[in-house]
Amino acid sequence: MPRLITLSRAARLVGVKRGALQKKIREGELRTFEGELLLSDLLHVYPQTQVEDSSMLERVEQIMEQAVHKAIRTPDDAPNSDALAARILALGRELATARREARRLAGVVNGMQRQFDTLSADDHTAGDAFSKLRDWFEQAMADASQSPDDDDVLAREAFLRVMAAQVRILPSGHEFLIEGSDSILEAGLRGGLALNYGCSNGNCGLCKARVCSGQVKKVRSHDYALSETEKSLGYILTCANTAVTDVILEADEAFGSQDIPNQEIDIRVKKIERPNERVILLQAKTPRTSRLRFLAGQYLSLDLGNGLSQQCAIASCPCDDMNLQFHIPLTSGNPFADHLADNARQNDTITVRGPAGNFTLNEDSPRSLVFIAVNAGFAAVKSLIEHAMALDIAEQMHLYWITTSGNSHYLDNLCRSWEDAFDNFHYTAMETDDETTIEGLLPGIAGDFDSLAAHDCYVCAPDPLLDGMETWLHGSGLPHSQLRLEPVRQLTD
To answer: What are 176-188's pLDDT values in tens digits?
Structure first.
């Protein structure tokens, strides 16, 4: 019986990115059946799979956790006993079915062998066609007995199924894995999905979804009361339930900025850093009951009180919606930035409003990604990159970070850690004397690619530079629909 495996588990099994598998699918090397792959096809394309050597994958996962500021979880954070028991039971049923099918097929094969032996006893009655069939059968049986042993691969795949449940969202078809004691909502956000939710604490009911198949378990109580009709139809709160077995859910997702509600939240300062004289790094935390919903690349209005406010790009990933990061340019005559630099302290309250902006990732595009950031334009680009990593869909990602005199690549080590961890990520640090010479660097960027038309390009730079960069990129063959531009959010002289 052919063995099917989901795209997410297949990627983890062979230690590659989902984007690499999607490329193989587009090129016809891998076949899909309702979104799943044949395990035999996967092993044919990746014959050198070493299931016992997971050190590289673990290193990638660790760097990814650090890169997007996720809480580090230990390897011992296993599913609870109920989830393990249910998943082992499901595997047991599959094993029983496979054994029954194997016994049936073994009986058929033995019967065929007896028929061949009977007919071969009198070779003069056997025609040429029969002789060829008999030879083929004997060779096929010999080849089957000498085929490479894939028991280790099958065992690894079974282990992944026990340790992590698969969730598929309808109607989008998006999927993600749930590990440990995560709720469905938490795992979905970590996986880069923009699932609908409000408080994330079981009070508002906005994360309501319907279970189409599979088994879930409540992991925390909630105040929101589902009606008896909703319960009978299979509705749950994703913030309060985890997947026990593989699950298919009907759930709302945000597919654009129009699907994200306007919010007003008081956040608290966690840390303020000055990596150079031109930028402030602000890290802040939302209340547990008022997490911020946003799309990667969007911005907020930050209000310090006393008339001090400024629009700032969110520099963190939506997958960690409680921990926010902002990169605020220090420009002359900017009292907002001056106050943060001189007076802000840990646990100070900042009111944020939004989010806003359409500098967001085209998640449905099959093209590789090119990011160009100028100075503190890296903030919005960083959010997009971390989101693309969480989605795990981009075949290739290229980051060009251009800095001008007096600025620096203030998170250069982070960018280089991405390049070290991900085979599909490439980082180039570029410098120039002043902003007027930036267009002179663009031919060097375009020269790295056979055709810019094969990529989606995201540019965040000071507003005066955008028109010139847009004109040059379009003139170099980049279609208008594949270019998204965003000005650096700052106060100017």
So the answer is: 888 777 899 999 9
Q: Which of 23-32, 85-94, 273-282, 323-332 has the lowest mean pLDDT?
A: 85-94
DSSP helix, strand, coil percent of the chain (3-state; round to 5): 40, 25, 35
Predicted TM-score (pTM) of this structure: 0.76
Residues 296 and 245 both lie in one domain: no
d(CA 245, CA 237): 17
**In the 8-state DSSP scheme, what is residue 11?**
H
Has residue 443 been placed in a domain?
yes
Q: Tell whether 67 is covered by a domain.
A: no
Same domain? For 409 and 469 the reply is yes
Domain-located, residue 413: yes
Q: How far apart are CA 221 and CA 238, in angstroms?
A: 12
Domain that holds residue 379: 368-487
H-only helix segments in 121-269:
128-145, 151-163, 184-190, 228-233
Q: What SS3 class is residue 357?
A: coil
CATH code of residue 239: 3.10.20.30
Token pair for 389:
């990593």
Number of structural domains in the chain: 5
pLDDT bin (cut points 50, 70, 90) of residue 65 is: low
